Amino acid sequence: MNISDAAADSGLPAKTIRYYEDIGLVSPGRLANGYRDYDEHDLHKLRFLQRARGLGFSVEDCRVLLSLYEDRNRASADVKKIAKTHLIEIERKIAELQSLRDTLSDLVQSCHGDDRPNCPIINDLAR
Amino acid sequence: MNISDAAADSGLPAKTIRYYEDIGLVSPGRLANGYRDYDEHDLHKLRFLQRARGLGFSVEDCRVLLSLYEDRNRASADVKKIAKTHLIEIERKIAELQSLRDTLSDLVQSCHGDDRPNCPIINDLAR
DNA sequence: TCTTGACCTTCCAGTTGCTGGAAAGTCTAT
DNA sequence: ATAGACTTTCCAGCAACTGGAAGGTCAAGA
């Protein structure tokens, strides 16, 4: 299967698939003409990657998860640890964004937003 | 005032302050020896930047906000518009992260995390 | 006066995860 | 034969810094 079909199948752009090969995540075979040739196993890995990236795992996390995915003797604890760390990080980001939103929301509400120059948002930033 | 004092005053790393000069945000005068020399006005702008960046505004947003900050005749509506757009973007990110967290949290809970290879997290990623 | 150490300068490279584009080769259909 | 839709590689760029190297400057102490 060539790269554009692999892209359609996995939901990843062809450019991204080539990039994943560059960084050693999925290396398909090659045809006589030099074209990449994806087999079922490659496709599984690409789908795995697109899903894991969609869940916000870093590419380096994905590399580890992929190797665990390939390892029939992995311990589920290893996977859980990565996922848990990621979960905590996501929760930290949510909290940070919420506090940001609260501050910003207050500022936006306090600004009447008309032609006059007086602006509580700018005043706050400058304080 | 030299760069390390400006850094201490504004809460920005010296490296970042030099970077802001590179991209044309804050350009201090220079002493005879070539050292940067920050005056009160520069410091105000640096503080403004660190606060606006802390609120998650992009550097390009900051550039506009800074020019509005400098403009005594700005309309508060202009500022409010930028802040509102940013607020919406933050809310979008929060919602995205929350949905991510819910999915990931379910996965983590369903994985017993022991020595055995069976792992619902990997299974889900591979599905 | 010399030296040490803490500053300062510029410039270049690397980070993350792609994405766009150029130049050139290949395949398929008309 | 030729058009156009693929494919390849390589190089550059995005955001917003950050680290490090190589070298200049300055203030304090022996």
UniProtKB/TrEMBL annotation, chains A, B:
Domain HTH merR-type: 1-68
Record's subcellular location: Cytoplasm
One GO cellular component term noted in the UniProt record for this chain: cytoplasm
GO biological processes: positive regulation of DNA-templated transcription
InterPro entries: CueR, DNA-bd_dom_put_sf, MerR-type_HTH_dom, MerR_fam, Tscrpt_reg_MerR_DNA-bd
Keywords, in A-Z order: Cytoplasm, DNA-binding, Transcription, Transcription regulation
Main location: cytoplasm
GO MF, one example: copper ion binding
Name recorded for this polypeptide: Transcriptional regulator
